[in-house]
Amino acid sequence: MKTFPNNFLWGGAIAANQVEGSFLLDGKGLSTSDMLPNGILSPHQTREERTDGIKDLAIDFYNRYPEDIELFNEMGFNCLRLSIAWTRIFPNGDELEPNEEGLAYYDRIFDELAKHDMQPFVTLSHYEMPYALVENYGGWASRELITFFERYARTVFERYKHKVKLWLTFNEINMSLHAPFTGVGLQEEASEQAIYQAIHHQLVANAKAVKLCHEIIPDAKIGNMLLGAMNYPYTCNPDDVIAAMHENNKWLFFGDVQTRGKYPGYMLRYFRENGIEIEMQPGDVEELASASVDFISFSYYASGCASADPKQKEVGNIVDSVPNPYLEKSQWGWLIDPKGLRILLNFLHDRYQKPLFIVENGLGARDEVNENGEIIDDYRIAYLNDHLVQAREAVLDGVELMGFTSWGPIDLVANSTAEMSKRYGYIYVDRHDDGTGSLERKRKKSFYWYQDVIGSNGASLKA
């Protein structure tokens, strides 16, 4: 078999805070992402102290979405993963009534996608939340956020129930352990106790959203989203194998709760041994148990290694790991491991026995426009080709794979560093780290490559 399943979903993934711009237009409130204008974490800033940043305009998808969706259509997308900015619907997060201008904006987006028979695949919270909820409630440290998130989820499910049938709750929910301000609205120096308590509130909110989606849109599917941070043992020393097990459990914990509906034994042991006590209220256990997600989605960019020797560890992309001597690195120092994707797909499918969806994968690189006005990004083509070949191998292994939405099909602003120079897209956007540029869109060589991959349903891939 050289092709993917006939109903396979092909597309790309974007996030509101990295493409839309218009960061306070039409009633939108400030989000936690808006407080990271230049990649400098600023949770102590007041609104008045905030300086303008590159994300305030981003790539102006807010106004240019018809043009961009047409380009996605030209590539053959039948699916676009995107997020709703919570602050466009509830600017401060705790309002009783939603902002109609924000709701109407996403109506226009979904209608535009429908014109091109492109299925919207919507993330409720993609690395952002209303900043007012951090200022006034302390972020997800407060149980009140469960109520606010439930109100937000109910509002968008009711509004878009005829337009959106694929949903995700929280983007890379396990990243709260590494970037708590981005994930749960806590300061970076927050204790593990505080972070895990906030995560508990988020997991309860996740369960409530899953139940709401099933009730309001019975023909929809809703999944979770993990950062697929697979760790190999650095050696065959049993101590390294156990170290890898512990590292993997840190992120699998989230999938276990969202799928199996309870805290796993290894996590309860970790809490006991580290003096962490999760405060639960009556009904929390039942809430988690009653709302298993319909599918598992994840991002995959690189694998890592784990060692019992702390001297082996080095800083990676937010997550520290041990370098793998058998793998090459990208320009940003990420380990390139296509076979790791096949391993991860088999591992997750065997663990959860649910459909899987690769919702982020791609290569960030410094693309250059040559003297002929072309962007020859053969390195990106090679990276994506090799990963998709391994995804196809996993399907042959028996993995139920729903689709593939590569990260950043159009160049966008990095969330944590506000860079434009780290480009992922098949479509080049003339904007630069200093905010200059015409915003002109230009097709890269990979644009036509991905067009062929989608058109052939994967048959054009080179094994």
From TrEMBL:
Transmembrane segments: none
UniProt keyword terms in alphabetical order: Glycosidase, Hydrolase
This protein's name: 6-phospho-beta-glucosidase
Gene this protein is translated from: ascB
Pfam families cross-referenced by the UniProt entry: Glyco_hydro_1 (PF00232)
Active site: residue positions: 360
SUPFAM superfamilies, A to Z: (Trans)glycosidases
Record-listed E.C. numbers: 3.2.1.86
Coiled-coil parts of chain: none
An example Gene Ontology molecular-function term: 6-phospho-beta-glucosidase activity
Superkingdom per UniProt: Bacteria
UniProt organism field: Vibrio ouci
GO cellular component: cytosol
Family of the protein in this entry: Belongs to the glycosyl hydrolase 1 family.
GO biological process: carbohydrate catabolic process
Family matches, as PROSITE patterns: GLYCOSYL_HYDROL_F1_1, GLYCOSYL_HYDROL_F1_2
